[in-house]
Design a protein that fits this description.
The structure is a single chain. This protein has 166 residues and is α+β, with helices and mostly antiparallel strands. The protein has a single domain, classed as Alpha-Beta Complex (endopeptidase fold (from Nostoc punctiforme)). Helix content is 38%, strand content 19%. It has a six-stranded antiparallel β-sheet. It has a two-stranded antiparallel sheet with strand order 1-2. A hairpin with a 2-residue loop joins β1 and β2.
Length: 166
Amino acid sequence: MRRTHRALGLGAAALALCALAGCASPARRPAERSDTGAAIATLAVSLVGAPYHFGGADAAGFDCSGLAFYVHERVGLTIPRTAREQQRAAHAVPLARLAPGDLVFFHIHSRGVDHVGVYAGSGRFIHAPRAGSAVAYGDLSEAFYRARLVSAGRFWDAAPAGVAPR
């Protein structure tokens, strides 16, 4: 009888620990995180053709950082609004480890970061290039973008300082 009570006590303790831990296995978490990155990329792809609008961050039109802001917001992540702030707050990602949903940062018109795109995979990214253009694909292998690429960052698998999940 004493053994039975002890076994029940250990079983209850294991259940309590499981409940406190959310029964999340470390092996499942990366897949869930990459699903978030894929969702960000898929949302960005769905916006190809949307109009450019300086300061825009909704379906009526986007600028580059507004596009990044919008797709992250749709998956429940709040990120800074400008390309420069997004780059500073993002968790740095080596270019060799880019994954869909990552952000790629460029200096187009200045020495600092002034443009951002959402990485879609296979060297391609989605961005709102400039006034008079629609949201479109860009390619990191193009000389123009390759020469201006500064860094890459991620919000979907890490919560850097200053960025709060919604």
